[in-house]
Structure prediction request, 309 residues.
Amino acid sequence: MLVLARHRGPSYVGAMDSVTTSPTGAGPVLAPPARSGAPLAPTRVQVTGPLHGLRMPADCAACGTPARGTLRVEKRFRRTSDDAPSRYLFHALDVPFCDDCRGAHARELAPVDPAVLRRMRWTFVLRTTPYWIPLAVILWMIPKVLAPFARGLTRETLALRTPSGEWNWWLLMAAGVVGFFGFCLFGFLTLVNRARHDLVAPYAGAGDDTYVRRERVLLGPNAVFLGPPTSVLTAADFTDDESELFEPERRTYRFRDPVFAAQFAALNANRLWNAKAPRARWARKARKLLTIAFVVVLAVAWVVDWWMS
Ligand SMILES: [Zn+2]
Prediction:
């Protein structure tokens, strides 16, 4: 059972490392740090695995009172690579907040310039024009192509084999036509949907590791606005995947409130990253071995090359 009292019980002072398994073996028990007069507990928590599936405390991340709902903390990260253009990734975390803090967040959000939204709407229309035309053509052609098949529809024509035992080519052809148009339709709709999610408002900064706000442009909240978070959202932050070779995906989560951070660590104790654990040590060893193997292969190649010449 999880013990996540904020002010109840004896005032334990604990860091993230103090997360242990309860004597009953029923699960992790947290020694919550006291809110005042105690050394500051770390507010950074390293957790492996993806963002979804993380368990969140029941209190507001900003003020510590019981949470009544969540706010989405979304960020954009840039991943660079030597041999490919850098790509942007969006990750979001639903963080619990109380009504007061959610209200403060809503009041702090500056209204988006309608001119910018209008421009983005046009960008979307222009960008998806090449898809709308084939989509219209496909939708126009489907009834025309299928009409002859629909007219010849009988109980016999719907059987996979004819009474004489041969394949019913009529049905197979109809299925092929339906499949082809369905595939095209799906493809173009996917492209439109992707364009809908790629709408990013102009941003002066680099936007490599930036909070994201989404606004409705067309068909739901899809336009991305990069920029500093509201003072409420600064209560929670997270990094992109920080794993090295042979390590599982992991991120550092930072919470302004050490109590919230400790609760978060306890709730996700089974996913906490420990650099001293065998798993991490194994990864370091494997990386070292790989480096050595690489050097050996290079040396052998060099010797062979020198021998042959
Ligand atoms: Zn609050």
